[in-house]
């Protein structure tokens, strides 16, 4: 069956589903495969649960006229998403970067939805499956699509751009993330810049942070819309303060966000800039930014008993960890940093964990708790450092009742799940 025919059937359905536990009536189910599962085996169950159509790639599971047999389910999902994107022909804004992708995406969506009907990536579904699902969640009501793209290897962003064919793009930054897969910092820059390559070749618009020399250099020959605090930028957003929340100035408006850390200033500035480009009123931009509250363990401030907790445990890499610690030092009172291992650093893991350990010791922080195998190996003779090889060791051995009237920073890679600290403080 051709993609055009499958698309016609897709339009009869309510939504796309890849998990039979979440199927709703009249969904279309794609039987994807993973390391430990084969979606084909759930095809019949999907029909019984209310799926209107099921897409499979193993003939033995074709048990119904509503079952569509294809050569490869994942490839079909991606081709269908690309076809649907062209069918709708709505403006697509794509964004990637080492840090701040999801927060920036949420801010952009908050700003643009003040004027437009938007569809944006849910959560961080930003890979070779998530991007197609985002595109397929768009419909005739969508006026602007916002697509987050993640990658940990070369050519992934290029591939995602070919599926989404964005009209606009923004790269938050180039940092020390996924060094193992990209092959070092230069590999990160090359991999993320695949978005620039696509947009420049297609003569599409790139949003550029003038304060980032890499962005400026990489887009020198591009059609671009620039923001910064320079007078020759297209949009000027000025940083005012970040104690504890970021405050900035835009077109004589003082905007008070609910995001901590000066590292979030560029994320806010990008959303303001894109709102300006799409003619969202200044007052609406201010409302959107001021009303946005972070969720899902990202830069959240939580009051618990006598303690203030900065929960930034969704993910971590050396760049974001460095920024979080520098910002944390600015807080007053008794400060405790609870840091978890940073993943996907490959041969650089030892050095990067040691550098973060040394940084934490050098700052005005009262206690530094390091959790994870890599941090456990870091060398430290400092009395303020406590090291645990596993989270279980930390949970069992540390006296949490001693934490009173303190400000805590909790940050680590997703696999460390340091938000569990909240359950035991």
TrEMBL record:
Species in which this protein is naturally found: Wocania arenilitoris
Chain ranges of the Mur ligase central domain: 96-274
Family: Belongs to the MurCDEF family. MurF subfamily.
Alphabetized UniProt keyword annotations: ATP-binding, Cell cycle, Cell division, Cell shape, Cell wall biogenesis/degradation, Cytoplasm, Ligase, Nucleotide-binding, Peptidoglycan synthesis
Protein known as: UDP-N-acetylmuramoyl-tripeptide--D-alanyl-D-alanine ligase
Biological process per Gene Ontology, one example term: regulation of cell shape
Pathway(s) of this molecule: Cell wall biogenesis; peptidoglycan biosynthesis
Enzyme class: ligase
Protein role: Involved in cell wall formation. Catalyzes the final step in the synthesis of UDP-N-acetylmuramoyl-pentapeptide, the precursor of murein.
Keyword flag Cell inner membrane: no
Mur ligase N-terminal catalytic domain span: 15-83
GO cellular component annotations of the record: cytoplasm
Localization in the cell: Cytoplasm
Mur ligase C-terminal domain span: 298-385
Catalytic activity: D-alanyl-D-alanine + UDP-N-acetyl-alpha-D-muramoyl-L-alanyl-gamma-D-glutamyl-meso-2,6-diaminopimelate + ATP = UDP-N-acetyl-alpha-D-muramoyl-L-alanyl-gamma-D-glutamyl-meso-2,6-diaminopimeloyl-D-alanyl-D-alanine + ADP + phosphate + H(+)
Top-rank taxon: Bacteria
Residue sites binding ATP per the record: 97-103
Gene it is expressed from: murF
EC code(s) of this entry: 6.3.2.10
GO MF term list: ATP binding; UDP-N-acetylmuramoyl-tripeptide-D-alanyl-D-alanine ligase activity
């Amino acid at each position: 069956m051709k993609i055009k025919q499958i698309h016609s059937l897709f339009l009869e359905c309510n939504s796309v589903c890849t998990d039979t536990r979440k199927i709703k009536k009249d969904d279309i189910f794609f039987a994807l495969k993973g390391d430990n599962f084969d979606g084909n085996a759930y095809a019949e169950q999907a029909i019984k649960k209310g799926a209107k159509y099921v897409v499979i790639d193993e003939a033995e599971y074709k048990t119904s006229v509503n079952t569509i047999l294809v050569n490869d389910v994942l490839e079909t999902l991606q081709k269908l998403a690309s076809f649907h994107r062209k069918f709708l022909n709505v403006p697509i804004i794509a964004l990637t970067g080492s840090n701040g992708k999801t927060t920036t995406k949420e801010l952009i969506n908050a700003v643009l939805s003040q004027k437009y009907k938007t569809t944006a990536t849910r959560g961080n579904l930003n890979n070779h499956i998530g991007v197609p699902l985002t595109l397929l969640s768009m419909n005739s009501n969508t006026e602007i699509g916002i697509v987050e793209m993640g990658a940990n290897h070369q050519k992934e962003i290029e591939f995602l751009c070919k599926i989404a064919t964005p009209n606009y793009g923004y790269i938050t930054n180039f940092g020390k993330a996924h060094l193992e897969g990209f092959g070092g910092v230069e590999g990160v820059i090359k991999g993320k810049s695949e978005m620039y390559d696509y947009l420049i070749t297609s003569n599409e618009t790139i949003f550029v942070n003038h304060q980032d020399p890499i962005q400026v250099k990489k887009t020198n020959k591009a059609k671009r819309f620039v923001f910064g605090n320079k007078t020759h930028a297209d949009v000027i957003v000025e940083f005012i303060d970040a104690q504890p929340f970021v405050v900035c100035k835009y077109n004589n408006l003082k905007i008070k966000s609910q995001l901590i850390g000066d590292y979030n200033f560029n994320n806010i500035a990008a959303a303001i800039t894109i709102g300006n480009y799409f003619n969202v009123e200044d007052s609406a931009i201010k409302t959107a930014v001021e009303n946005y509250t972070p969720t899902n363990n990202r830069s959240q401030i939580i009051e618990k008993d006598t303690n203030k907790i900065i929960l930034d445990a969704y993910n971590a890499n050396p760049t974001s960890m460095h920024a979080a610690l520098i910002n944390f030092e600015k807080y007053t009172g008794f400060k405790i940093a609870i840091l978890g291992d940073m993943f996907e650093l490959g041969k650089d893991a030892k050095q990067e964990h040691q550098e973060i350990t040394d940084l934490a010791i050098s700052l005005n922080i009262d206690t530094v708790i390091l959790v994870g195998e890599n941090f456990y190996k870091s060398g430290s003779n400092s009395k303020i450092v406590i090291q645990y090889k596993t989270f279980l060791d930390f949970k069992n051995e540390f006296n949490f009742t001693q934490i009173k009237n303190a400000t805590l920073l909790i940050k680590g890679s997703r696999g460390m799940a340091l938000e569990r600290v909240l359950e035991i403080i």
